[in-house]
Amino acid sequence: MKGSQFLVPALLKTVVLPPLLVSCILKAIPLRVPLALGITAYLVSFPLLFILRSHSAAIRSTRHARSLGAVDIPRVHGRWPLNLDVLADWAKSGSDEEVGRMMVLLGRKYGKTYNTRVLGEDQIISSDPTVLKHVLVDDFDNFVKGAKFKDRAEAFLGDGIFNSDGDRWKFHRALMRPFFHPSHISPSLFAPHINAFLDSLPTSSGAAFDVQAKLGQLALEMAIKWMTGEDMSSDPVDHSKVGAEWREACEGLGGAMTEAQKIVGKRVKIGTLWPLFELTHDPLTKPMSIIRSFFRPIIDRAMERKAARAELEESPDEKEDLRFIDRLVEATHDRKLVEDQLINVLLASRDTLASCLTFCIYVLGLEPKMSANLRSEVRAVAAQGDITKDSIRELRYGRAFINEVLRLFPPVPLNIRRTLRPSLLPTSSGQMMYMPGNTSIILAFVLMQRDKTVWGDDAEVFDPSRWMGEGLDKKEREGFMSWNYGPRMCLGQPFALTVTNTFLILLCRHLDRIHQEHGLSLQIAFDAQPAGTGLPEAWKTAEGSEGRARTGRDRMWVVADVVLAIKGGLWVKFGSAERPADADDT
Ligand code: HEM
């Protein structure tokens, strides 16, 4: 049975062991125990043993910490046993703004690194740059994604870079790194897709559309184009069966990826017991069959190209225009491995990129001065013609703008790692903290990147200028990890930055053109936001927000779905109407 390697020991410990112990104790007592007492003993044995185990683990951990000259990570002391109230608040909070606020409040009470210890299980949360650096760099080999994550994601990610640790991860990283070199990533590959996307936006005055959803599709198309050379947006050449099949495969891919991600996310949330919720069916079967049927013919074609190259005795190294998939099939004969890598890279690229582009547009709509600065820089250095790496290099303000978007709205807001062995965490307060083995830590990038003690009193203000001039100081540099940090840093950074810069240049040109031709500008369409997804009015002021929504600065409800996103979508429109009081035109 799937997941049984973790489920069976957990069930033995929590369900079988307590009554077994009670039965032994009752047998050992020479007197006849009344039935009611016996039943009570059995019933009480479950929570009692659980609490005892939890306390003894805590005591052992404290002793171990002391013996190493360290302290325990501060434990949250809830009002109810096993911190059940913390769990209830967590579950009740529902929206990510609430979860974020809970994390901030707990942080104020317990510091930047604390242990929620819900249901007796250590669960560390940290937004301390010193701790995060230790986890991601200094004790890298000890902080892994872990066998439990691999087990839950196996049917989706197979044996891919996202799903592996240790030597296997090193193998994947070494295999893929050369293909991500900036020399394989050119703005000209993405410009046609971005232009087609911009041309498809409805320009009739007042027609609102969800640009977040459209950017998801654009990110998918660009990732597929770069990985495989296949064009999802082009119409089939004829109405043949192949064309119809291709269209159908393209239409299903995005939804199937989202579905598979949700299923794995649900398993992670449920924890060890997840197989019990899938006894009658495997929900991944359908989405995975759609995803695998999409990639199968594409891999076939890559294999055919490889065979043709071999026949002509062409060296792949001489061919500059080789795609990611071609380089992969040159490097391995293993079809399944190729398929797994494609799925892993698609997962890594689609939602992160869509999130980054969405928040660029959101900020442009929210910050008129920044929008004007960006557009005037584009007019000055890249007003027309092909976009090249040189034109991107000249976008100094643009680069600062993107960094600031990634700082305040990191597409991957939280990351998670698990210890193999105990670890001593150095902290920014100078205190050494003891973290037990086999324990998870949530790395709260988003909190760290909005932390006033790292970024100054204006930490929540969108201000690209902090990245210009002298640039960041050491503390700030160490407090920015949107691309992750250390050996497992994002491989796709050159890809993502090339796309985002190209997108911003073409968007600015497009906005100028629409303004000249139609007198229209892009606005956030607050009135089009689906019911129940608009930001509560109270959160739009510093006092009413109580620290949510960047202390009242945001106008949209930011949620961590799979990545950071805007609840209900980012609805925008081209309009000439006067600006709403709380919005601005770009
Ligand atoms: C703005 C966009 C992006 C951001 C903010 C971002 C961020 C990240 C982060 C935080 C990780 C670490 C994940 C983890 O430890 O579980 C990661 C890993 C990775 N990213 Fe990105 N990413 C972006 C776009 C992309 C793109 C476009 C690609 C591919 C074309 C890509 C490929 C990868 C790969 C392959 C890894 C795994 C690296 C490893 O485990 O060694 N990313 N990225």
From TrEMBL:
Cofactor(s) listed: heme
Keywords, in A-Z order: Heme, Iron, Membrane, Metal-binding, Monooxygenase, Oxidoreductase, Transmembrane, Transmembrane helix
GO MF term set: heme binding; iron ion binding; monooxygenase activity; oxidoreductase activity, acting on paired donors, with incorporation or reduction of molecular oxygen
PROSITE patterns reported in the protein's UniProt record: CYTOCHROME_P450, PROKAR_LIPOPROTEIN
Keyword Magnesium recorded: no
InterPro entries from the UniProt entry: Cyt_P450, Cyt_P450_CS, Cyt_P450_E_CYP52_fungi, Cyt_P450_E_grp-I, Cyt_P450_sf
Highest taxon above the source species: Eukaryota
Residue spans crossing the bilayer: 6-26, 33-52
Residues annotated as binding heme: 490
SUPFAM superfamilies in alphabetical order: Cytochrome P450 (SSF48264)
Stated family: Belongs to the cytochrome P450 family.
Protein name: Cytochrome P450 monooxygenase pc-2
